[in-house]
Amino acid sequence: MGAHALGAAAYAVKAASLAAPDQHVAAAQEIRWQLRHMSAPVKAALRLLPLIGEDSSGPLGPGLLASGLQGTMILDLQAGLADRDLSSRPAPDADVQDAGTDMSELPSSR
User: Which residue from 36, 54, 73, 103 has the fewest beta carbons nearer than 10 Å?
Assistant: First the structure.
């Protein structure tokens, strides 16, 4: 089930980034928003999953999900989960945008 959660989250990041003029900023904002709004038990469960592409026996193994933009988004989400400081920052007021956020604020998974 965790792999499905990461896949769905990555598709949301992909959609947000493709719909924005600055795709890198939009992707970083969506990832940070998701990490801030995950409950502690959800974060703990997702941290137990192998990194995408590392375990060939499951849905996070090498394949379509692990390749291309989708794979990059999942890696970025997993990197954000691993960075407990980034994933535990409190959410800003819902009416405030993360205007200045860029991909450099996320741990690099590439």
Answer: 54
- Assigned token pair, 59: 């849905």
CA distance 103 to 76: 9
CA separation for the pair 21, 13 (Å, rounded): 14
- By CB atoms closer than 10 A (0-12, 13-18, 19+), residue 38 is buried
Q: How far apart are CA 32 and CA 92, in angstroms?
A: 10
Q: Is 107 helix (H, G, I), strand (E, B) or coil?
A: coil
